[in-house]
Specification:
This protein is mainly alpha-helical and 187 residues long. The protein has four helices and three strands. It has a three-stranded mixed β-sheet with strand order 1-2-3. The longest helix has 47 residues, at 24-70. The two termini are 28 Å apart.
């Protein structure tokens, strides 16, 4: 969106009379300027909501972890919920990056520290967690990512291929089957 705002500023600086032009040219310019202001306000509101959601999820994760320690019979369920929360945090951070840059980050390291303090470590089941990121810079896996996914308990799979319909998507890098009967990467 910053590029669109820059174009409007350049037009205004180079052709200041457009704003005052009689008839359709002036009206179209004012309509476009109003539309841009609405888009920028909407994106600012969206970012504020995403930042609040990230804070909420991080707080919830701490509560879920304490519950997993106290209630061992629910560990698998609680670890899955923590993994899904961390996935939502990363997706929100990627969306904020996109709003600011009109492109997805080349890798998840670009999200720190502005959007998230650190790339979260994730484990879909009790056991060691991982914050390792595997970047797919070429989408050669078609519709199913199963062949790209690691045989691990966690970590992240990020699609950085600009030509892929999945560009900017992030997945849990695990082929473990969750208590919901889905592969972890399918969330």
């Amino acid at each position: 969106m910053k590029y669109l705002a820059a174009i409007f500023l350049a037009v205004q600086l180079c052709v200041p009379s457009v704003a005052e032009a009689p008839g359709d040219a002036g009206r179209e310019y004012q309509d476009a300027k109003t539309a841009l202001a609405k888009i920028l306000a909407s994106e600012a509101k969206e970012k504020t909501g995403l930042m609040a959601r990230i804070t909420e999820l991080e707080t919830l994760d701490a509560d879920l972890y304490r519950a997993a320690v106290k209630e061992p019979h629910r560990r698998k369920e609680l670890f899955l919920q923590m993994a899904r929360n961390k996935l939502e945090v990363l997706r929100a951070a990627i969306r904020m990056y996109f709003i600011d840059n009109s492109a997805y980050p080349p890798d998840l390291k670009k999200l720190t520290p502005k959007y998230v303090q650190a790339i979260p470590e994730v484990a879909v089941m009790p056991g060691p967690a991982s914050g390792r990121v595997y970047v797919l810079d070429k989408d050669v896996y078609g519709r199913d990512l199963y062949d790209a996914v690691g045989h691990t308990n966690g970590g992240w799979l990020y699609v950085s291929d600009k030509n892929s319909p999945r560009w900017g998507d992030v997945y849990i890098n695990s082929d473990r089957i969750t208590i919901e009967g889905k592969y972890a990467y399918q969330y």
